[in-house]
Amino acid sequence: MDREHIEHEHAEDEDFDAEDARDAGRGARGGTAIGRYLVIALALALTGALGGMLAYGRKASTISAALEELRREQRMTQLQAPAGIQTLRVRPVRMRPERATIAPGWSVPPQLLELHIDAAEGTYTQFQITIDKLDAGRVLQLRRVARDSNRELRLALNSSAFGPGEYLVEIQGYTWRGQVEPYGWVRLDLR
User: Judging by DSSP bridges, how do beta strands 111-118 and 84-90 pair with one another?
Assistant: First the structure.
């Protein structure tokens, strides 16, 4: 090799400082470590965001299903004109029944339910009739309903006004003083 070339390489080596090289290596490694921490932090944030989105999606799905159920229930309980008449003759029981006394079921299209309640026993001529939906509450209360010449209480109820479910009909008789006394119960199953 020629001497000029060797001197040139030697001159370049003289400019090289080992301490500067170590500092440069530390800075590169330090930057790499910061970069790694940043990538890990971003990955954790992304994982958390995805988890939140999945939880939100499940909650939205649950709410959507509940809303659809309420819409279906609303359509079922909208008052509609009855397409026919269904006559039901029933004798009330003395104690509150645990099971349905009569189960006409849910009719589609709606029916006009004519209830003929036997009121032959006793001296009552006027009655109070209270209808409660078992899982909801009071639906209807009729006062001073007189029995007819056949000694029956007659009610005509639109089945679409009630909706599917179980209904408890409490019948009370009016005394000559205007007080009500228990007479009987009927439990309807409209499901």
Answer: parallel
Domain parsing of the chain, residue ranges: 3-76, 84-190
Quick one: CATH architecture of 84-190?
Sandwich (2.60)
Q: Which residue has the tokens 């003929």?
A: 116
Amino acid at position 151, single letter = R
Residue type, 60: A
Based on C-alpha coordinates, what's the Rg of the chain?
A: 42
pTM of the model: 0.60
Cβ 104 vs Cβ 190: under 8 Å: yes
Q: How far is CA 82 from CA 21, 78, 106, 112, 162, in A?
A: 95, 12, 13, 6, 12
Higher pLDDT, 110 or 94: 94
How confident is residue 80, by pLDDT bands cut at 50, 70 and 90?
confident
Res. 13 pLDDT band, cuts 50 70 90: low
